[in-house]
Each structure stands twice: as C-alpha cells, then as structure tokens.
Amino acid sequence: MKLTKNVSFTAVVALSLFLAACGSTQNQARPTQSSSATLATSSTTTPSSTTAPSSTTTPATEEQTAGELDRTYRGRDEEDEVTLIITGTSGTWTQVEPDGEQEIKNVTIDPTNQRIVIGDDTERYFLEGNQLTIEDISEVDVNDTIVLTKQ
C-alpha cells in the first residue's frame, strides 16, 4: 500500500511538472504571437516605420497620377486616326484606318512606371501639358512615337 501511494504521488508530481512546463511554453508562445501582431499592427500604422509610409502613400499617388490622365485624347498613328479614352487606370484605344476599318483595344495604365498597355503591347507614356506622348519600349527608332492631344 505504501508503494502504491509513492507511485501515485510520483505520478501526480510528474504530471503536474509536465503540465506546468506545457503551460509555461504556451504562455511564452502567446506573448510572442501577440507582440508580433502588435508589432505588425504598429509598423503599418506608425508613421516612423520605413515600410508603412511607402505602402500607404503609393496607392494615393497612383490614383492621383492616373486621375491626371482621365480624358479623351486624339491624334494620328501614321495614316490612322486614334482616339484614346482613359478613366482611372483603364480605357479604350480606337484606331480608324483611312478605309474606315476600326480596331478597338483595351488599355491599362501603370502610373508608377509610366507604362500603358494597349492590347498586348506595353508602351511608355509622358504627359506634358495637353499632349500625351506614347513611345514603343522595344524600338530604338524615335519614329515609333505617337503624340495625342487632350480634347
């Protein structure tokens, strides 16, 4: 009987130590997780953080830059008449050939990199006053430039 009490007592003590150790590990893990969450939250909202300002100000800058382009532009690409309508970061490119054939392409604007995707072609653009200049990135020849005027 004395042996059974010793074994039972030893088992209870061992189990208690085990549970205490597990509880201690869980308690240590929780502050780390919550402090990480707190750190992440504070780094995205604290202006002194180096990553938060760039990530929070970039979309506003993109919207402002894209908003500057919101217009209808007209011009020529060789013999074709071109109409470009931009709203936000998207739009349509309508190209009418001299024989009346019309081609319409979707347009996507990347104001951060000053890129415009017309159909499948990626071009570079510059806005100077009321003129939107579009250059072919892949061509070195400066004759591959289209100048459109705000309407």
From TrEMBL:
Domain of life: Bacteria
Renumbered residue ranges of the record's region Disordered: 25-80
InterPro entries with a match to the protein in the record: D_amino_pept/lipop_sf, DUF3642_lipo
Low complexity bias: start-end ranges: 31-61
Signal peptide annotation: 1-29
Domain DUF3642: 75-150
Alphabetically ordered keywords of this record: Signal
Biased segments, Basic and acidic residues type: 68-77
Protein name: DUF3642 domain-containing protein
